[in-house]
Design goal:
Structural class: alpha+beta
Strand order of the largest sheet: 4-3-13-12-9-10
Number of strands: 16
Number of helices: 9
Oligomer: single chain
Order of helices and strands: EEEEEEEEEEEEEHHHHHHEEHEHH
Radius of gyration: 39 Å
Length: about 500
């Protein structure tokens, strides 16, 4: 990609610590990154599937041609040079910048997806580029649609299909995540007990040739596609596989929730006097996790209900086919699965209470942190009020009724402003309070420093008033000095 011997430069995100999976920033396009489907590059974490949001961030060039990055309100954030970006705000990036997607886990110092912005020749970076996730989708503009149970049975009777089931999206609910894990275990046990070998997807040798399942052992059941009973089992097995995948991802989400709660608890134990902004951020993160739990549990409940309906349908079919071999065994297996399911539901309902207690404990800790902050604010206001009382009652000159300016202490231990006592002695050489004869005046720097520091804590109006008095008295003193000098001349 060179023009007249000049190499063409390209921007890309080089993954730190990996020799591949670089992300190309193609000029004139919008590059989206996340774990969703309609994005440019799909990233699915192996250790924590929900570390990357569905549409985590967006890279785009601005009017000047400079690349920018925007956090698309992701759960775990986007970090530019160790600084977390504000959601929905565009930040410019330059060559050499480090970008992290998500946060590091407890056993790692950096995030799983860490990239460095580089600009290099196209031929050098092309072997390391990751495959775009949106290239295959651009070829087909036909909208997707969901198939009903009857359509799935029809498809099974006609032949294997090349379509792929869409991965269940992850979310979670008010009920505990242990319920999802128990359902996955139930699906695994059902798989081992039914011993059904399903037909593998792929083209058949003939147009009308059925695909038979190979038995695992002597008690295995063969599943021809043209048999209604086999179609129902295929339907049940497909639902179990989907539920197992979704629930395994749900268990990983539970681990993420526990890690997040542990991190919040550690932050609160280390920094009890955290500011309001940090408290709101922690509350928002917990609320987002709770919303995801709620969405996931609703989705799981729908799958369980659909699976139960499928089991009931299969049981009705088996009752009408008593003459077929293996009917009694299948009925016993279905009954056992349903019984185990009810037992799991009861156990998971008990676990739900434990999870709700954890949420209540976290909310209580947040309330205690807020109360401590309110107490500190009240103490600060009380100190300021006491300081104002001292300034108004103890540190005022009795002649001018203002705070001491260049305070002096007489031989009788009473203090006045230097300017005020000088004006007083022009008429009387005695203390205005105790009427003792004034024999000495001592400058009190301690009072001046104390008053100046306390005035700094007051409002702007008090500060300006004091400065105006100082300037006024200084001007009058200079006028008197000039008058005395002219009089001597």
């Amino acid at each position: 990609m060179a023009v007249h011997g000049v190499p063409c430069l390209a921007w890309c995100l080089r993954r730190v610590g990996a020799s591949g999976d670089w992300l190309l920033l193609e000029a004139g396009t919008q590059v989206t990154i996340g774990r969703g489907l309609d994005i440019t590059y799909q990233l699915v974490s192996k250790t924590c599937p929900l570390m990357i949001s569905r549409k985590h961030c967006v890279f785009q060039q601005n009017a000047e041609g400079q690349w920018t990055v925007k956090d698309n309100k992701s759960l775990n954030g986007v970090w530019l040079n160790k600084q977390r970006l504000d959601p929905s705000k565009v930040y410019p990036i330059a060559e050499g910048d480090r970008i992290e997607l998500g946060v590091p886990l407890e056993n790692r110092e950096t995030a799983e997806y860490e990239y460095e912005v580089i600009k290099d020749e196209w031929e050098k970076i092309r072997p390391f580029l990751a495959q775009r996730s949106d290239l295959g989708k651009a070829k087909s503009s036909r909208p997707k649609r969901k198939f009903t149970l009857e359509e799935l049975e029809t498809c099974e009777s006609e032949g294997p299909s090349n379509s792929r089931c869409k991965r269940d999206r992850m979310s979670c609910g008010n009920e505990p995540l242990d319920k999802s894990w128990g359902q996955a275990e139930e699906a695994r046990r059902l798989t081992e007990k039914m011993d059904v070998k399903l037909p593998s997807p792929g083209p058949s040798e003939g147009d009308g040739a059925p695909v038979h399942g190979s038995p695992v052992h002597s008690k295995a059941v063969t599943v021809p596609q043209q048999d209604q009973k086999g179609s129902g089992l295929v339907e049940s097995w497909t639902g179990l596989q989907k539920l197992r995948k979704s629930l395994e991802d749900t268990m990983k989400l539970k681990v993420k929730v526990q890690e997040k709660q542990t991190a919040v608890l550690n932050v609160k134990q280390k920094r009890r006097k955290c500011d309001q902004k940090e408290i709101l951020v922690m509350e928002q993160e917990l609320q987002e996790l709770q919303n995801q739990l709620c969405m996931e549990q609703e989705h799981q409940q729908q799958q369980v209900e659909e699976l139960e309906r499928t089991f009931c349908k299969e049981q009705q079919k088996l009752e009408g086919e008593k003459c077929q071999q293996g009917e009694e065994n299948l009925k016993e297996q279905l009954a056992q699965v349903l019984q185990e399911h009810r037992a799991l539901m009861e156990e998971l309902n008990r676990n739900k209470k434990d999870f709700e207690e954890i949420i209540r404990a976290k909310n209580k800790e947040l309330e205690e942190t807020k109360e401590e902050k309110e107490k500190v604010r009240a103490q600060k206001e009380e100190v300021l009020n006491q300081m104002n009382d001292v300034l108004e009652n103890e540190l005022q000159c009795t002649i001018c009724s203002e705070h001491f300016i260049e305070a002096v202490t007489l031989n009788c231990a009473h203090s006045f402003c230097s300017y005020c006592i000088n004006e007083w002695t022009k008429r009387k050489v005695e203390c205005p309070i105790c009427r003792q004869e004034i024999k000495s005046q001592t400058r009190s720097l301690v009072l001046d420093n104390c008053i100046n520091r306390m005035v700094e804590k007051l409002d702007v109006e008090m500060k300006e008033h004091r400065l105006s008095l100082i300037r006024e008295r200084k001007g009058e003193r200079e006028t008197e000095c000039e008058g005395e000098a002219s009089h001597r001349q």
